[in-house]
Amino acid sequence: MRPSNERLFRRPIHGPSSKLLQFDEKKSPKVTFAENFREYCLNTTLHGLKYIGTVSLTTVERCFFFVSFILVSILSIYFITNVYQKWQSTPIIIGLSPKATHIRDIPFPAVTICNMNQATRTAAEAIKPGTLEKAILNSICSLDGEFNMTNYEGKWSTVRKMLLSATQPCHSMVEACRYAQTTYNCQHIFRPVLTDEGLCCTFNSVDSSFLLWNRTNGGNRTELPDNPFVPIEWTPETGFVGEANNSTFPRYIAGTGANMGLTVVLDANVKDYYCSSTSSYGFKLILHNPTETPKMAEYAHYIQVGTENRIVVTPRISDASYLIRKTSQATRQCVFASEANLSYFRTYSRNNCEMECEARLIQDNCGCVLYYMPKLQEDNKICSKVDAGCYEKIRSSIAQTASNTLSCSCLPGCFEISYSIDRSSADLCVGKFMVRENLLHVNDSYARDNIALVYIFFSETYFRSFSKGELIGFTEFLSNVGGLLGLFMGFSLISLAEVIYFMTLRPLFAKRKEKADRTNQETVVRDRHFNTVYNNMYPIQQKAGAHQRHVHFAGVTRQNEQEVNSMQNWPKQIKLLISSRVQQIAGWMDGAFRLRRTKINRPKQISTLPFYE
């Protein structure tokens, strides 16, 4: 019985046969780093590296191409660094939008008008001395006196009630108004609003529900009584939410010219002046974004009584591409609506952010807020004359741009709209001769001392916005880098794939192939050793003088004769024998059929000799 390989290899092997197990490891292929790098240089698409890996070149030639490749790489890195610095330093560009904006797509500006008289003489004389209302009045008019409502309940409601009762109401200040050739009841389109100039009147601002997060928490606006118009939402970023028409507000721009704008007749009632916010009498007027609370004391324009004023409005629109959202706020220098974090105002703008920041700083440092500022908490204390030194210092520090201790870092909105005006005026003459304006119903002497006529309108139908966009986006940056790498080195994404392949995949699969070759070589050596040992243990008994026949199968050489004839490979011998016999029989059959067809298809030869029976 033939022993198995396992039993055979358990025996100790000595002598010459043991040398068969010692295969040559030097003949086993190993992929070293140098060989891998050489293969990469010969096969890469990068320019110049194939000359470094070419063995037929001399060392000087290969060094020349190596130094050239290093210099070219340094140049490409230098230019790529310049492109990257430009991409990081100036990624945003501001330019005129190629698409013009129609005036119907933007709202008519919010118009806020204040009488310089902060309290009427009639209301001031009716207040009793020594009362809280008198102290509030003196504080508003910056007169001597102080008020402190620390121990008084309903602080803000008391101040608000006092301001509404002591100042000139809107229906008294705005006597007549007309918009887009339609005359309206001024109480329906002008609403009272508290500003830093006291109680003022605003036209075309958004409703408080769209302006404030919580309009019941110290809101500075008063709802219009019996308002027949429907409020809709508008923001600089989204535009009108819903359909804007003649029965909604804020109103869209109806058209160009004085007839399609806003016309108002203002009455200062100079005889009823008690205290003025300036050294004169008249009105203050400002045009602003419908979602903002204006700063009248600092930025409003004067409107003198006894004059007719024409104000031509020019909108300044700023928008931005949504592609710059991925750029940081510090780089693009603007804030999108979804990024705003205001606590009081719903819509973000620089003015709203600065007003909320100023109120927060005064509240934190002085423990109170001014009456016109946002009330971040319901029980906020209203600042009195006692707190004037504190809040004036805070406001002065905020106004100084060089101040770093107390400042409000508010970026502009990425979508904003502002209005610039060009004003002209002339003396108002009523009663001396017939005039075209039918809203004036006063005599000349009263008009000259108290009345101002104001026309606010647009002169152009289309405007171009200032748009922020990407100067160098990621696609452009990638194109520039790819162009430089292609110019200097012939680099492409395939080159990157080659680097990854030769660094990871090729060494991995080379090690696997090396391990498989080693295993195959060990198997061959063991098989040879097994055959040698077996033949020594079980020699073939042959008759003396008998001729030994050697059978060579198909595909088997004489060098492998010993392995084929060994008893270990007898299944292979039988398989090869059967295969050779089948091939031989098939050859015989094919030859026989071919000879048969040849005989059948061969034409018969007709003899030309005479035939004799």
UniProtKB/TrEMBL annotation:
Pfam families registered for this protein in UniProt: ASC
Cellular compartment(s): Membrane
Transmembrane segments: 63-81, 484-505
UniProt main location, coarse: membrane
Domain of life per record: Eukaryota
Protein topology in the membrane: Multi-pass membrane protein
Keywords, ordered alphabetically: Ion channel, Ion transport, Membrane, Sodium, Sodium channel, Sodium transport, Transmembrane, Transmembrane helix, Transport
Family stated for the protein in its record: Belongs to the amiloride-sensitive sodium channel (TC 1.A.6) family.
Protein name from the UniProt record: Pickpocket
Organism in which the protein naturally occurs: Aedes albopictus
